[in-house]
Amino acid sequence: MWRALFDWVDSRLQIAPVLAFLRHKQVPVHRHFYWYYLGGITLFLFAIQVATGILLLLYYKPTAEAAFESVQYIITKVPFGWLVRSTHSWAANLMIFTAFLHLFSVFFLKSYRPPREMTWMSGMVLLFLAMGFGFSGYLLPWNELAFFATKVGTDITGAVPLVGGFMKTFLRGGEDVTGTTLTRFFGIHVAVLPMIFTSLLVAHLLMVQRQGMSTPFTSEGHTVPTPSREMPFFPNFFLREAVLWLGTLALLLYLSIFLPWELGVKVDPFASAPAGIRPEWFFTFMSQSLKYIPGTVLGMDGEVLGILGFGAGGAFLLLVPFLDWWAGKGRRHPFFTWAGIGIIAFMLTMITLAYVKPY
Amino acid sequence: MRVPDPCVGPGFTPGRGGRGAIRAVPAAPILAAAVVLGLLVAGREARALDQPAGEKPDTCVACHQAVGGPMAKPLEDRKADVHATKGVSCADCHGGDPSRMDMDSMKVKGFVGRPSRRDVPRLCARCHSDGARMRQTNPALRTDQFAQYQTSIHGKRLAGGDTKVAVCTDCHGVHSILPANHVQSRVHPVRVADTCGRCHGDAEYMKAYKIPTDQLALYRESVHGELLLKRQDLAAPTCSKCHGNHGAFPPEVTSIAGVCGQCHVINKDLFLESRHHTVFDRMKLPECVTCHSNHKIVRTSDDMVGVGEKGICIRCHAAGSPGYKAADQMGKMIAGLSAAVHKGEAKLAEAERAGMEVSDAKYEFQNARVALIKARNEVHVFAPDRLNKVVGPGIELAEKGFRAGQEALEELGYRKQWSLIPLAAILAVVVGLVLQIRRMEGGRG
Amino acid sequence: MEGRPTGGTGARSAPGRRGFIELILGGGLLTLLGSMLYSVVRYVIPPKVADAGLASVVAGKVKDFALNSGKIFRFGNRPGILVRTQGGEFRAFSAICTHLNCTVQYRSDLEHIWCACHNGHFDLVGKNIAGPPPRPLDPLEVVVRGEDVVVSKKA
């Protein structure tokens, strides 16, 4: 019966070649093979976000008067609402975590080298979009911590030279963070970003399929050996991936029951900011480091300098396929290795400080 | 617009007290010299006259302005003065004829000049106790202040010759008097304590009177002081609320509950019903103040009731006495209810933090908190069986809330148990996949 | 060992083993999908209890309120008080006393709102007129729609 159905569709759309391609897709097997799973896990988590996000949309109300209560309603009165919401919050953080792991593994494996520059750059943009998802989604429960974190975050955006002021007003929908901001962030979170992200994600995946998996070169640096072993994507690699995906699912279930995501207290804009405001952990490497920059450095505003620094870091990562000319030649230049280690060390230090010594 | 004033001018008749007899003599030569000097100085500079526009020239103002220095200070002060805005002129209080030039303005029958402290209340009362007069400018203002003042300690002592006591100007100011509801007025509720404290808090000044001088300091530390002075909450009392303002006098021992009861009505009613009322009055104990103090009234706490370390009851009730037993009972009841409320609150909060639905229970639980508030009131009837009627239902409500929280946490436990099914399913699938992979790859996984 | 691992069966597979794998795979997947489907279906069906974020509530019917009377009703998670004045007008406020959060009540003898805990008094526009409450009661919007008295949050 399936055969008949397949034939009916195939005679109209010619999907057989696609399936043949998938059937013959190979995954190289080598010492660093395990890093290949990270992209898939990130994709799986994104799918979880879409599914739980749609479910949340059934009950969430994106206005300042009702947002907090609607989330409260979801987690207390809607059957399994607690599960949907906690999963959504946990999966968001896990997704960004795995996205960073995926980024750094690709970075150190130098898979960004030609011919995969566009794949790398689309991936970087996907990461920025994912952080945008995190930033916009964080505000939606309209609780105190999120409100003030958004205030601080959009303030920092305002410090970007030239376009900062416009961006800040655009994001906030006005001078201050208000119900208008909430509605904007909601629209960005459920419509604008999903559209852009999905398109770019499809492009990213198509490029990966088209070009196949990249293989690392040895640490001595010079030769790029042809893969000695390969594994069919279907079913071998896929079944392994399925194991990991199911493990992730179990983890999300465990986290939702034993470490449910907190709701906090509703925003009171006239209350003063509580102590210990902090954005989501994946922004803390920026917010924390800004705290250490003195007010003025060499006559320039310290905050602006910090933002330019992050911009430079982001640009470096984005353009690394073009900067790391040596990688294209199969050589491992130490600068990029150390740059990568430096970035990771910086981020880890700042994130740790943000939680251990926030003041 | 200047209102014609029957109190002044040629038709002026000296009122009660020998105003016309006031001797301005010692000041006259000095005054004369100053005026001459001032006129010389005034010749050099033209200064705008501080008079309401459209007025006839007022020589009091002109001269004092010209002389300058301390003589011009009243003019400076009058810029923010309620009398000035109502058109009351210098001569209306001090006498004299402002249409006459130079020193002639003071050579009028009934010229008061600078009144002595002893005469100040009568001087003010000339207008302020005259209903017909006050109706012309402020019909709703009371006119019994002087009568009240005469019943007060200040008034009585002043009549006996003591000029150290407060007179009108000490509290209200002299030339810059503001209405009491004006925030900068010295008798605005927020500032009354400081005004009274200027004398009553000055140990040196009050040495002869043998009354305490720590009231202001104590009041500042009290809950009333905190509310009024720090939080500007005008519902909180200041000195005048309990002692009166013009008729200032400490309340009699047997009317203290009535005074505190102006605000604390429920506690007053309960106290008056209680046995403490008759006993305290008989023993001349100052009712509410016995337990709560007068000036340094602090926030109450539950451990004030009972026989513990901080218990007030044991100050009088010896161990083993019936009063001691009753105090012990009541202390334990309050502590029990408070503990039950805290326990219930904590449980519900715990359940809510765990993500459980407890909003109904929390809504009902408010009644338990209210019971605790009412119980703290009910203590004032000092009867354990009466208190129990409030505490008993309160404990039941608190325990109900506690049970609701417990049930919610049990439900969470069920979630944890039931989640084992999908977890087991995931495990099964994972195991199956691993086996499948091994099978496919001939043992190499 | 060189060569690609194929999707074929290895030497060790046996029909019984294969059946076992299929059993736990199938059974596990079925259970997993079943429990996921169950939770999604239960989630999607709207609960009977209305959303507490709902901004309005029917506090009662017009004919149930005599002149100069008041009633406590539930507004979301908090108590509200609906008052019908001597003149027939409806007014509604949050019933949470602004002093220590006791629930206020309507006193028809005083024709205004009163709190039994510490003798706080509020007039018919919610203003604190006597006693310890430091702030007025939060007002609520009242609209009479036909028979129903509908109370909603103040805009």
Entry keywords:
heterotrimer; B: 445 residues; mainly alpha; 4 domains; 22 helices; elongated; C: 155 residues; alpha+beta; Rieske Iron-sulfur Protein; 2 domains; six-stranded antiparallel beta sheet; 10 strands; 33% strand; disordered N terminus
Spatial order of strands in the largest sheet of chain C = 1-10-9-4-3-2
Q: How far is it from the N-terminal to the C-terminal residue of chain C, by CA?
A: 75 Å
Share of helical residues of chain C: 10-25%
CATH class of chain A: Mainly Alpha
Describe the overall structure.
- The complex is a heterotrimer of chains A (359), B (445) and C (155).
- Chain A has a single domain (2-221, 231-356), classed as Cytochrome Bc1 Complex, Chain C (Up-down Bundle).
- In chain A, 69% of the residues lie in helices and 3% in strands.
- Chain A has helices spanning 2-13, 16-24, 37-57, 67-76, 81-109, 117-139, 144-158, 164-172, 179-211, 233-258, 281-292, 302-323, 325-328, 334-356, and strands at residues 26-29, 229-232, 296-297, 300-301.
- In chain A, the strands form two sheets. A two-stranded antiparallel ribbon of chain A has the order 1-2.
- In chain A, helix 4 crosses helix 5 (81-109), helix 5 packs antiparallel against helix 6 (117-139) and helix 7 packs antiparallel against helix 8.
- With 445 residues, chain B is mainly α.
- Chain B has 22 helices and no strands.
- Chain B is elongated, with a radius of gyration of 36 Å.
- Chain B starts with 27 loop residues before the first helix and ends in a 5-residue tail after the last helix.
- With 155 residues, chain C is α+β, with helices and mostly antiparallel strands.
- Chain C folds into two domains: 16-47; 56-153, Rieske Iron-sulfur Protein (3-layer Sandwich), CATH 2.102.10.
- Chain C contains one helix and ten strands, in the order αββββββββββ.
- In chain C, the strands form two sheets. Chain C has a six-stranded antiparallel β-sheet with strand order 1-10-9-4-3-2, with no helix packed on it. In chain C, strands 5-6-7-8 form a four-stranded antiparallel β-sheet, with no helix packed on it.
- The longest helix of chain C is centred in the N-terminal third of the chain and has 30 residues, at 15-44.
- The N and C termini of chain C lie far apart (75 Å).
- At the B-C interface, helix 20 and helix 22 of B face helix 1 of C.
